[in-house]
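Protocol step 4 of 6: structure prediction from sequence.
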Amino acid sequence: VTVKGLAEKEVKANIAIWPIQFNQVDNDLPSLYKSMQAKTDIIVKFLHKQGFTDSDITISQPSIDDRQAQGYDSGNIKFRYSAQVTISLYTSKVDLLLATQNKMVQLVKDGIAISNQSYGARPEFLYTGLNDIKPQMVQAATQNAREVALKFAKDSDSSLGKIKTASQGQFSISPRDSNTPYIKKVRVVSTLT
C-alpha cells in the first residue's frame, strides 16, 4: 500500500521586514531635501524610542520625480518635485514591530503621513527556523502515514509490514490567514510504501 502522511504546525515568524514610506513635495530641490531629511530623522528617532537599533534600520535612496521634466506640467501642478522616502526595518523583534505599527499614528502630529496601503509598504514576515522543527514534522508525517496504512490493512484483513520506500515531500511555509501574516503554517506531506 502507498499512503501519504500529513504534518502541519503553526509557528510565529522570527524575522520581520517593514518598509516605512512617506511622500514629500516641493518646488525647490534644496528645500525638498531638507524636509525629507527632517522627517527621516523624526522617524528614525521614533523607531529608536520604540526599541529598535541602527542595525535594524536601513534608509534607502529617495525616489524623486520632476513632474515638469516628465511633461506633466499642464499648469495645474502645484508642486514640481515629488519624493518618496523608504525607511526599512529588518529585525528579529517581531513583537516589537507589531506593537510599533499601532503607534505609527503618533507621527501625524509631526506632519508625517505614513503610506501603508501600497503593496510595497506592507510588512513581510518570515520563518527561518525550519531546520529546528523538520525532524519532528517528518516523524509526525510518517506516523500519520502509518495510521492510514494500518487502516487500509485492517479494512482489507491484511497485515502491514515494514516501510519499503519513503519520500519526504516539500515543506511549505505560508501565512495562516490574511489577518495574521506573522503566524505561519508549516506543512509537509510524506509518501510511504
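Step 5 (inspection) to follow. The chain has a mean pLDDT of 91.
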